[in-house]
What does this fold into?
Amino acid sequence: MMPARKEPAMLTMLGSPRRCCDGLTRRETLQAGALAMLGGLNLPTLLRAEERRRAIDPDRPRKAKSVILLYLLGGAPTQDMFDMKPAAPVEVRGEFKPIATSAPGVQICEHLPRMAKWMHRTAIVRSVNHKAGCHNTLPSFTGYEVVVPDNTTTKDTYPPSMGSVCEYLRRKQADLPAYVYLPCYLGWGQAIRRAGPYAGFLGHRYDPLFTECTPYLDKDAPKETPGHPQVCRGLPRLPDSKLGEGITIDRLNSRRSLLQQFDEQHRIAESQLDHFDRVQQKAFDVLTSPKVKAAFDLDREETRLIDRYGRTLFGNSVLIGRRLVEAGVQFVTATWDIYWDRFSLQYDGWDTHTRNFAVLRDYNLPYFDLAYSALLEDLNNRGLLDETLVVVLSEMGRTPKVNGNAGRDHWTFCYSIAMAGAGIKGGAICGASDSHAAYVKDRPVSTADVCATIYECLGIDPEMTVPDHSGKPVPIAHGGEPIREILA
It folds into this structure.
């Protein structure tokens, strides 16, 4: 009888699970060094294993090379856009009428006539819901449906956004980021930081490249008041995108090399330098990348096309988003934000507690209609629509009953989203709300399901896990499943 085979000894080193700048834990690094002494493994081998673990499965179907997320902050009243109820009582159905679209049997709001021409490429999900609280932006970016203690702040313990996961999965350092957020960080206009768009426990190095902006109104525009918005103008711009006087690219690279030499010994032990290192890397990439700078230069674009997008801050953000994905950026978010605290303009965004129908008719819907239809037309003309997923969503919906100020209040129990382009079955409708668009009648869809669908289109396994601060594996879609009814 053969003696039992003795397993080789495994040397385990105790240490803190804190992650280094390369994404490995200190414990994993010590284990690699210990195993190297036994001839079983070395650090390069471990790094290659980590790279393989992160890589997108090449055999997994992938319809979308990139995503453009159009985020309507405040809670868009989608029953006045994509899920109209003309037979409901007057206090529920509102003031708008449905119209036919390019998709047989699908109707949307009369104030979205340009979008109606693209419904044959667009799918609507009418049964999205969550119980994570009003104006909680975390679920829509991550799929993590939990009530947050304060929706005006973000925390490093939160899970990563979809865009940050794309940044995390990038196989190699490129000359442009994988994830860009336009026109400013979420909540900037209110001097707060809303949760959701960040990398959370993955670390700041996977945060998006946030642009900056200076919103303004037309010179002859009257002063805004709640329920009376005006056209919000402006252009997203790269932060610190110009070299200082006397600074050349060669001098910049020399300074970078010197800084890296000083930082090398510290950044492994000091995790706080991780954020600085990643942001510094992005800054150098932006300063030296002609692709990124060219994407923000609208002087290179035809005047007619800029007009087509609407010449608003949101429309310009969407146009630059198209230019970014054309340059190779994988995930772009263009947000219709609120700026009333900082600039005393764009009071409402999509948070239409007052004069809901007037705000939608005179401002929000026409300018959204311009930007959305221009984007799909532009992508299609350039041969990019079949490889770009376009997503329209908010953090919640609005109440079925109109309030005393002709507005609609907060509502998370049922609302709609739209998806178009790569991987999407045009003209498809998933789910249904009840007769008042109040609650889900058929096929409930969670925010985790929405995120899982986006990952599926990108060829990323929604069940893939990423490590939190303790090393615990966390599924990126938090148990969500792709919405098969709208997938091509």
About this structure: The chain has 14 helices and 16 strands. Residues 1-53, 264-273 have pLDDT under 50 and may be disordered.
